[in-house]
Amino acid sequence: MKHDNNLNSMDFWQPEFDFLRRDDGTIIMRQKGELDDYLPTLADYLDNWANAVPERTWMARRHDGGEWQRITYAEARDKARAIGAALLELGLGPDRPLLILSENSLEHALLGAACFYVGVPYAPVSPAYSLVSQDHAKLKGVAEILAPGAIYADDGAAFDLACDAIADEGRVVINQRNVVDGAVSFDSLLEADPAPADLARAAVSSETVVKYLFTSGSTGSPKAVINTNGMICAMQASVRDCYRFLTVQPPVIVNWAPWNHTAAGNKVSYLVLTNGGTYYIDDGRPVPGKFDETLRNLREISCTWHFDVPVGWDMLAHALEEDETLARTFFAKLGMMFYAGAGMAQHTWDSLREAGRRATGREVLLATGLGATETAPFALACTEVQKRAGNVGVPALGLTLKLVPNGGKLEARLKGPTITPGYYRDPTTTAEAFDEEGFYRLGDALRPADPEDFSKGFFFDGRIAENFKLNTGTWVAVGAVRAGLVDAMAGLVKDAVIVGENASELGALLLLHDKALAMAPEERQEVLQDRLAAAAKASTGSASRVTRALALSEEPSFDRGEITEKGSLNQRAMRDHNAALIRQLYQGGEGVLTV
User: Fold this and answer.
1) What is the pTM of this model?
2) Inter-residue contact 155 to 175 (CB < 8 Å)
3) Is residue 407 part of a domain?
């Protein structure tokens, strides 16, 4: 990918590719060359930077909202050794991992470092499984798969019910504050003799499992994705090959995204660690009432690389327009802006590019990519300046991209050292995830930006499965949402098409039952409105709450693939074929129900 004249070509890759085209339409694409040498384990990187820059800040977070509390690389290694030894003493090991229930924190970071230093796998899971869920069903499913030897919950009081829900004989609970009866204090872990950690460290290799990250993917059932040292370190080597400025200036990052997701938990946090940078934990969020904290941090810290989901970038774009001081600080050292998790609106894209040019007098790269929890996640990346949002780029060095014709689209599959070996304790799903040549089935379709030149990158062309994401990056389980909405309509609706990909809220196209069609139009609208409002009120979050609906005016067609052989709606086909109706749904007007 060639670069705009305003960009320093030495800051980014300029890849060349080999292609293989098969008779069945399959295309194989791979960058020429091989990855530079890289260290085999994350423990090696921690040792390297603790020796080279012992006083440099590795991780920082504001203490009680005030001054930054910092951990240097030397302190990180010392604390990791002590905590690692304590975890081993508690009986943790390869088959008895650590389960982390809490959000990003210095303690969370140290526990993760301790685990990868001594070879204890760990699994950070969404705090919502503990604090929002009423039945803790997902948390119980996670615990059943992992059989963890210990659970970390920073606040013993807040997480007490969740810990009770997955209590098991011999399972230790660790609290940082409000330590409950029978739990171990986090501070006590720091007092352990580190000698056992050094012995365990010697046995850690590229094959050692670092963590398990849970993903429901397109099936809705939780799967524990195995993340080894080898795949993570190879992934970071490909990141350095792509974003070459990272090796010139140690990265400085301010980030809020949760570590139970691969984007922040793997790419962002280990981008800092493997390049000797500094990570400022942002306690803000891209939501009203919390974004001010993000802006406070960005006014103080000049990042070299910044990541957010599109809704966060949209809020930041408005702030950059209104605050020149913020813009000067934000762009002072910035190498690039990166978004992921969902598609970015064009007006946000345009605003951010203009803000960068206004503040620096040059083009600041704004880009995205494509990957998955199973790809560590860095897989495809774009480093060429684009006029429009959405180009996810080309495959990273070391990866082979296989594009397979599938239903009129090109299905993406990947092979290389950054791909997971599979799902923990789930050989059946692992086998299904890979094709006959060992390529991981990404589940996404790609459309070339230039059909004559695939080196120009690709656009995301939909999920092979039916689920999608909101613009917050939150996955929507379409089947569950559809079923709940149809039930709430109490016989007035035969089926529903759930829409809202890259939008902020869910909508639905309703296939009305004869009972509803027999009503007078005014009465039908009133009853549907009331039932939609009741369904929305009973929902628990944006990924399950349908806030607008519109009745379908035509019956779905079997010939157009809108109805399956089993008689159910093909959600993807219905969304594709009703684009105009979906636009009407979100623009509002006659017939649109809203709550």
Assistant:
1) 0.82
2) yes
3) no
Q: Could you tell me how far CA 591 lies from the centroid of its own chain?
A: 36
Geometric angle at alpha carbon 59, from 53 and 64, rounded to 5°: 140
User: Are the C-beta atoms of 353 and 363 separated by less than 8 Å?
Assistant: yes
Distance CA 5, CA 517 (A): 60
Beta bridge partners of residue 303, listed in sequence order: none
Residue at which a domain ends, from 204, 234, 250: 204
CATH number, residue 105? 3.40.50.980
Tell me how far apart the alpha carbons of residues 408 and 410 are, in angstroms, rounded to a whole number.
7
DSSP collapsed to 3 states, 165-197? HCCCCCCEEEECECCCCCCEEHHHHCCCCCHHH
Supply the DSSP string of 372-422, one letter for each residue: -GGG-SEEEE--S--SSTTEEEEEPTT-EEEEEEETTEEEEEEESTTS---
Q: What are phi and psi of 484, to 5 degrees?
A: -65, -40
Residue 112's nearest CA partner among 236, 284, 260, 256 is 260
Is 346 part of a structural domain of the chain? no
Q: Is 185 exposed, middle or buried (0-12, 13-18, 19+ CB in 10 A)?
A: middle
Rounded Cα distance, 53 and 141, in Å: 42
User: Residue 183: CB partners within 8 Å, gap ≥ 6?
Assistant: 156, 172, 173, 174, 175
Asked if omega into 377 is within 30° of 0 (cis), the reply is yes
Classify residue 275: in a domain, yes or no.
Answer: no
Would the pLDDT of 116 be above 90? yes
Strand partners, 381: 369, 394
Confidence tier at 5 by pLDDT (50, 70, 90): very low
Three-class HEC string of 240-306: HHHEHHHHCCCCEEEECCCCCCHHHHHHHHHHHHHCCCEEEECCCCCCCCCHHHHHHHHHHCCCCEE
Mutual angle of helices 106-118 and 73-89, in 10-degree steps:
70
Buried b (16+ CB within 10 A) or exposed e, 380-404: bbbbbbbeebbbbbbbbbbbbbbbb
* Cβ contacts of 550 within 8 Å, gap of 6 or more: 507, 508, 509, 510, 581, 584, 585, 591, 592, 593
Residues of the domain holding 127: 73-204
Final residue of a domain: which of 184, 204, 224?
Answer: 204
**Domain tally, the chain:** 2
Which CATH number belongs to the domain containing residue 571 in this structure? 3.30.300.30
Specify the 3-state DSSP secondary structure of 93: strand
Q: Which residue has the tokens 């762009």?
A: 331
Structural tokens at position 442: 């990404």
**CA dist., res. 494 & res. 508, Å (int):** 13
pLDDT per residue over 457-498, tens digit each?
999 887 777 778 899 888 787 777 887 898 888 879 888 999
Q: What is the mean pLDDT of the chain?
A: 92
Virtual torsion, Cα 370, 374, 376, 380, nearest 10 deg:
-20
What is the rounded distance in angstroms from the CA atom of residue 178 to the CA atom of residue 428?
42
Q: Flag whether 359 is in a domain.
A: no
pLDDT in tens, 518-560: 999 999 999 999 999 999 998 888 888 999 999 998 888 755 7
Distance CA 587, CA 283 (A): 34
Continuous H helices in 323-369: 324-331, 346-360
